[in-house]
Amino acid sequence: MVKVSVIIPVYNVEPYLKQCMDSVVGQTLKDIEIICVDDGSTDNSLDILREYAAEDSRIQIIEQKNAGAGAARNNGMRYATGKYLSFLDSDDFFEPRMLEKAYDLAEKDQADFVAYKSDQYHTDKNQFVPVNWVIRENEIPPYHPFNHRQMTGNVFKVFVGWAWDKLFLKEFVDKYHLTFQEQRTSNDMLFVFSAVALAKKISVVPVVLAHQRRDAKDSLSKTRENSWDCFYHALTALRDKLREEGLYEELEKDYINYALHFSLWNYNTLSEPTKTKLKEKLKSEWFKELGIEGKNKEYFYIKQEFEQYQQIMGQIPEATKKENETMGFKQKLKRFLRKIVPVGRTYVDKKFKDQEKYIRKQFKEQERLIKLQQKNMEEMQKNLQKNLKEYIEQELVRRDNWAKMASETKRVADGRPVWVIKCPATEGEAKFRWGDYYYAVALQKYLERQNIYAIIDNRQDWGCDEGADVVLVLRGKYFYRPDRRNEKCLYIMWNISHPDMISKAEYELYDVVCVGSRHMAEELKDKISVPVVPLLQCTDTEIFCPEGETKKQYNGQYIFIGSTRGVMRDCVYWAAEAGVPLHVWGSGWYEMMPEHKDVVDSTFMPNEKLPALYRSAKVTLNDHWKDMLDNQIINNRIFDALACGLPVISDGCEEMKEIFPDAVLYYDTKEEFDACVKKVENDYEAVKAKALEQYDMIKKEYSFERRVEELLEIAEKYRK
């Protein structure tokens, strides 16, 4: 299977065809097939295609009698074998990396289709003109992939209803039987807008990758005078498709608003006598058939469009009629005045008076707003002063405590070594939502069992120097600068997440750097001058273990714990789509998957409840952030779950597969994920047995108890 099938309908485009073909043949993505459908051309277009086919085996020519671009695209799809489908009109052309960029994003996001920007090209001026309406970026979410339920504007106006600025997954197209209408114009609207409504995953490449020629004499977009009714047939076909897929009720308002918009656009851009013919059809039949008739003004997003609809229907309100009558009298008065007063003076005087009234009105409104803003600012300033005073008082108390901390620490430690764990969690109740905080608590527990006096400093107390012997920095999301005034202190960084956020210069600030993978340690040790030690993530095997409390309601259930962080996490989406009994805890899921919100239990799962959940569930889903996977850092949820005997379905890296060769079910693609689910369902006893076998190995090699032993060895080796 090739990666992309490019389908090009060709009809009498001899002057432009070579530029079009060169842009496709020269794509940086080479694993493609190019299907050119000659739609009965009467010029030399077919001969040009044959020349290209003789030079490039990827090109396939299909000949048909003239039936239009929609029929040609449908014909081309019958021969397509690619994983993705791309369409290009034969007078337009692509950027060289178009297919590569769209394909890479589609694969990364497992998208149903990928859209990208385009501009307009004027041949006579050799000029590219930017357009900002092909993708309404302010109406799509800041993350991808997304679907129509996350769009904030009219679903049918976020993208333009043409196919050549999008890359479609063929499996998705086949599943929903998407085809082009076989009519002269508006033949791709049904295909594109059906895809927008049906797609579960849409992604966008926010750069110009295609160029639309705007002055091609034989362009299909210029034949609308002869095919003036095609838009109506496209709209009714779209409505019927939405009903067939059970989406019309949900999208009815967007559809009717778009139907009015597109009807008026066609009406306003036609010439006579076609325009009058269309007006009569709209008035007598089509507005009613499209669901527009009978709706009030408030139903429509754009009031001017509703007013034009009323004009076409002859439904001019009484107030508007009176205004027209008044305007008629004014016109008569103006003609009379012109006989005795110079035209310019009459016109200018009126304009001055109108402008004066407008300016006075604006000044009053501005004066009102300024007073309101001043009142709000005064209120905000009072609150700010109050809050600032409280904060300064609290901070002074905190910093006063810092000054006493060293002597107090020395007294309480009573001769024991002092370790300070710098934890990136925030202070207060919010710290209990940080996994890093529980990491620090576990380290503190096992350090104290080794006769170490251990203190946890959350982020607000990072400026405090307690006279420590060792400062252990849990480097995740936030930067910490070692306080070198304490000359006897050994500073150890343990990088447990976000490795891409750490620079070489930051590593050099420490005495020892520990990293969460052996692979990363090998890579890093030749790049920095300080010692690098592999120290993998781990779990507290006294808490996460096979024996203990369970939660029967989660028996036989799939679970996932983690927030969206603004992106759709594939394993969750695939599981929800597959219909497995799924429970999700984490923020952002209600907004990310409104169609599957029933699987979301809560935005947070308390850490103390995790072991019972892990002992009860059937399997947990897991994934890693890209920088973690690239650096082969295994997240601690793997160790937590397996220590409880819970099977795991996860993406993976070589280091993870060495540690857990058969205890974790691994996936990279949707097909592999589906195979993992199938194995769980068909052979669960064997899968569960493998998970239960891991506890002894984890306790020995990947427990906090073992990590503390290693940290003490490191401190002994590198102490000052």
UniProtKB/TrEMBL annotation:
This is Glycosyltransferase. It holds the Pfam family Glyco_trans_1_2. Residues 5-159 form the Glycosyltransferase 2-like domain. One of its GO terms (molecular function) is glycosyltransferase activity. PANTHER family: GLYCOSYLTRANSFERASE, GLYCOSYLTRANSFERASE EPSH-RELATED. It comes from the Bacteria. Residues 575-713 form the Spore protein YkvP/CgeB glycosyl transferase-like domain. Keywords: Coiled coil, Glycosyltransferase, Transferase. Residues 363-394 form a coiled coil.
